[in-house]
């Protein structure tokens, strides 16, 4: 429970917190719940922003299911569309590494990103990605939610055509230290540049850091 409560510190949207709470309780002592365990009625308040990703034949993740509010925000049906293709090409390496952390290491990823329309209007989103077991494996399914942090008047009229990662945090809910804080990984992005760390631990802003694709990764607790 402490891990759950501490993790809420950085979750800005109710749909994110609701889905994480449900996922965390449903999995119990497992690293991830099973796909068949998901009951949509239990996450009714978050369902419109909830999605499930599946690994397709091209070894990329696409939307298997996507909530109605999420599809409205993008002005199109997302089912069957590529999740990876939504992201700017400069973020592809970071995204691939992030998805592996979720599917292989059973981390929870909390991502903020900037969505831009063809008219160059922008808004911020929050998304959460959590491992989901399917046929005994966590490699082919991901449970998530994606919600606009603010909902400008044009959202749902002007489709998002490009999105860039603004920051992310990886959380290992079961890895609780003695002081009952959750071990996590924060990524800081400064404008169009990021501070690269060497393969061995380096120091960024006085804290140990390492390379995460093209971003600087800073290890620390959720309360930092």
Structural features, described:
The protein has one domain: 2-Layer Sandwich (Beta-Lactamase), CATH 3.30.450.20. The chain has 224 residues and is an alpha+beta fold. The chain is built from four helices and ten strands. The N terminus and C terminus are likely disordered. The longest helix is centred in the first third of the chain and has 14 residues. It is globular. The two termini are 19 Å apart.
Structure in a nutshell:
This protein is α+β, with helices and mostly antiparallel strands.
Strand order of the largest sheet: 2-1-5-4-3-6-7-10-9-8
What is the helix fraction of residues, given as a range? 10-25%
Structural class assignment: alpha+beta
Low-confidence stretches: 1-9, 176-224
CATH C-level label? Alpha Beta
CATH topology: Beta-Lactamase
| Level-2 CATH architecture | 2-Layer Sandwich
Q: For the terminal residues, how far apart are their CA atoms? A: 19 Å
Itemize the secondary structure elements and their pairings:
Elements: H1 2-7, H2 14-27, E1 50-55, E2 61-66, H3 68-73, H4 92-105, E3 108-117, E4 122-134, E5 137-148, E6 160-176, E7 182-188, E8 202-204, E9 207-212, E10 215-221
Antiparallel strand pairs: 1-2, 1-5, 3-4, 3-6, 4-5, 6-7, 7-10, 8-9, 9-10
């Amino acid at each position: 429970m402490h891990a759950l409560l501490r993790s809420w510190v950085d979750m800005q949207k109710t749909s994110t917190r609701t889905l994480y709470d449900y996922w965390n309780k449903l999995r119990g002592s497992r690293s991830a719940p099973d796909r068949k365990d998901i009951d949509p009625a239990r996450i009714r308040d978050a369902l419109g922003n909830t999605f499930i990703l599946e690994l397709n034949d091209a070894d990329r993740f696409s939307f298997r299911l996507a909530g109605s509010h999420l599809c409205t925000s993008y002005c199109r049906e997302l089912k069957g569309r590529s999740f990876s293709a939504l992201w700017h090409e400069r973020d592809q390496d970071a995204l691939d590494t992030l998805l592996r952390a979720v599917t292989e290491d059973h981390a929870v990823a909390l991502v903020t990103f900037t969505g831009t329309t063809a008219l160059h209007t922008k808004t911020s989103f929050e998304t959460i990605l959590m491992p989901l077991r399917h046929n005994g494996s966590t490699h082919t399914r991901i449970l998530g939610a994606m919600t606009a942090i603010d909902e400008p008047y044009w959202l749902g009229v002007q489709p998002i055509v490009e999105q860039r990662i603004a920051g992310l945090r990886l959380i290992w809910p079961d890895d609780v230290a003695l002081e009952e804080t959750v071990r996590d990984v924060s990524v800081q992005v400064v404008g169009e540049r990021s501070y690269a760390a060497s393969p061995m631990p380096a120091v960024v802003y006085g804290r140990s850091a390492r390379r995460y694709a093209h971003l600087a990764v800073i290890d620390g607790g959720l309360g930092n």
